[in-house]
Amino acid sequence: MEKIASSKISPEDIETRKKQIYIAKKTQRLLGNFITFPAFFKHHLQLIHQGSAFSLHPLYAQYFFKKKLIIQLPVQRIEHAMHDWVQCNAQHLHTSDYFLSNQDLLSISHTVENILAYRHAKELLAADWNYQSTKAYQYFSTALSKGKPIKKQHVLLDSTTAIDAYFERFQQLYLSIQNHGLLSNAQISQRSTQQPDREIGIALDRRGNIIKLQGGQHRFALAKLLNISHIPVEIRMVHTDLLQQICQIHKKSPIQAILWMAHQLASADALFEYNNLIS
């Protein structure tokens, strides 16, 4: 398994992923409810044991667990971010599309300082938000001048006005996080009628390392740079080796083990280590 650049992702890869998400959304009530999910989950665990590298779309787990996998976590505990796309057995897979894995997840991750939004946020803070003077602004302007505008946050930056608006939204997000911390979806819903983005997703590797998943890059980068004490995250990938160890040591079913793991992470302090999960 190896990471692959977004430039190598074909339209067919994107279309395949869209179909998988569509199917998961259409069937999550059927397969993610409290009656059918335990057997469905067991089936996907068996697929992993039989050699699958990744399995089970997280939408099913989210429907079953509801908000039980959303926890407050010290932001400084998150030091790595997973690459969006990987190649596994000649297939191109998006890492946000799987709840279970038996792979070396750190090998397809990088430090959070390498997240593009993090680098841009750091530069903007150093420039005191005079964004037009930054390399980040030049990066988008150059792409525009070459006729290859970049899409950020689902918006194509195809004009100078669009680029300026992107940085102004970035600054507004900074001010919000600086004044209020990083709000959870529940808190945002109480304050606004706007549909909030999903919580920042995390994965747990075989040793309990916390790895950020794709999405929420700007929120995470600003919270990290502002040294916000805790941020809301959602467990959206679990390594099956870690899950198996917790089941064996603590005499729990896989579903019980995941809930127990979420509780342990939420209650652990900044010195959380692997032993907090398995001991």
Structure overview:
With 279 residues, the chain is of the alpha+beta class. 47% of the residues lie in helices and 17% in strands. The chain contains eleven helices and 13 strands. The chain has helices at 11-31, 37-49, 58-65, 116-126, 135-145, 160-180, 185-191, 217-225, 240-250, 254-267, 274-278, and strands spanning 2-3, 54-55, 70-74, 80-82, 85-88, 91-94, 100-101, 109-111, 151-152, 155-156, 200-204, 210-212, 230-239. Strands 2, 3, 4, 7, 8, 11, 12 and 13 form an eight-stranded mixed sheet that branches. Strands 1-5-6 form a three-stranded antiparallel sheet, with no helix packed on it. It has a two-stranded antiparallel ribbon with strand order 9-10. Helix 4 crosses helix 8, helix 5 (135-145) runs antiparallel to helix 6 (160-180) and helix 6 crosses helix 8. It is globular and about 55 Å long. The two termini are 31 Å apart. The mean pLDDT is 93.
Number of strands: 13
Q: Please count the helical segments.
A: 11
Secondary-structure element pattern, one letter each? EHHEHEEEEEEHHEEHHEEHEHHH
CA-based shape: globular
> If you average the pLDDT, what whole number results?
93
Q: Unreliable stretches, pLDDT < 50, 5 or more residues? A: none
Terminal CA distance reads 31 Å
Structural class: alpha+beta
Q: Helical content, roughly?
A: 40-55%
Share of residues in strands: 15-25%
Main sheet specs: 8 strands, mixed
- Rg is 20 Å
